């Protein structure tokens, strides 16, 4: 039996019936989480995912504590923990120019009192998409969405694995098709892009020597580099190396393929990772690098189409916010759709909420990038003022790891971080 409000399709929207209340384009963490949460609430959900088996695309594998809290609100936390998740309680952070203290205990020091959660991305996608199907969503794999016609009753055109064309109409289309979203174009959304700054490379390794009981973040502001390692289950570790693209190569200088492991290691070591960490490291997945510049759609709802996850806003992977933002989008859209029978209003409310959440993350990560990763002279001058004050009073730092978008990000917070609140 359907629960309200899905049992009552508002008569003003259309006459007749639709097979699905909503159709989700893309079964990544954003789309699958939303499908899971809404199917559990009784909605008729269709998920269209082009991959028949998920592969390692070198994506996010470390979920911040505030993202774990979102997973909990979606009812996904236990599932992720039980099926391949690796909880990590400690966070070790080193910034060149600052004294390094003992690792932070995330459970003791974050408002949600939760550890971070790491997982291998393709395994996590499989777990969440299967959970959505088990909750009642209709999941079509190997299906490529080829177009969406927005409107009061949006229409989706797909190519099936057998090469046939099919169409679906629905009440709401949710574009969850990732950082190269085609839904953005089909919906006529305006896309904003920051200038390219960081290039982010990732490698999956076995036998990597970083401590397995903590996440390790090492930032080298003078060199504009960072090394980040997230231990996963079964002795695996996802390591990222990112560098500030001072020369403006816009991602043309790429790390790709197994032969680039030596460059990946050299860059990570230059950023501050001990060389012995690589002594027994074996590459067990692809190496790939990506331009890190944020790109986003302001107000990601219009004309029967909502965007979530990277399709709505792809944030600089250097700061590992994407998974948490994707879960936040799924939670927020689920809540709004369940609370309001008028989905036009509900989706507009979601879009406004999304802009607030993502805007805060963009502001905060922009400050962190300037202060801890930008090697250019203007940033050096800002650091000379800010770092001694942060050392004297660590509460000046913005608690991005613990609070994410809930951390204060107004002008007063910025001035405190940059030490501009003192004469
Ligand atoms: C190098 C790197 C490191 C990162 N590290 C972190 C990290 O440590 N922590 C973190 O939180 N985030 C990180 N991120 C970001 C994180 O990976 C993304 O934010 C997250 O995966 C977004 O999920 P999504 O569901 O929106 O998109 P995706 O995971 O891209 O899912 C989109 C899905 O849509 C499907 N699809 C696309 N087009 C179509 C179509 N036409 N028809 C049918 N299906 C389609 C795709 O097959 C895919 O399954 C990182 C990103 C990168 C690039």
Morphology call = globular
Instruction: Kindly report how far apart the N and C termini lie.
Output: 65 Å
The fraction of residues assigned to DSSP E strands is: 25-35%
CATH domain topology of the domain at 20-58 and 121-193 and 295-362: FAD/NAD(P)-binding domain
Provide the CATH top-level class of the domain at 20-58 and 121-193 and 295-362. Alpha Beta
Structural class: alpha+beta
Roughly what is the average pLDDT, rounded to an integer? Answer: 93
Pick out the low-confidence regions. 1-16
Counted beta strands: 21
The distinct bound ligands, ions and cofactors come out as: flavin-adenine dinucleotide
Number of helices: 12
By CATH, the architecture of the domain at 20-58 and 121-193 and 295-362 is named 3-Layer(bba) Sandwich
Q: Tell me the name of the CATH homologous superfamily of the domain at 20-58 and 121-193 and 295-362.
A: FAD/NAD(P)-binding domain
- Compute the CA-based radius of gyration: 22 Å
| Percentage of residues assigned to helices | 25-40%
- Largest sheet entry: 8 strands, mixed
GO molecular function: FAD binding; oxidoreductase activity
Protein name: FAD-binding domain-containing protein
InterPro entries: FAD-bd, FAD/NAD-bd_sf, PheA/TfdB_FAD_monoxygenase
Pfam families: FAD_binding_3
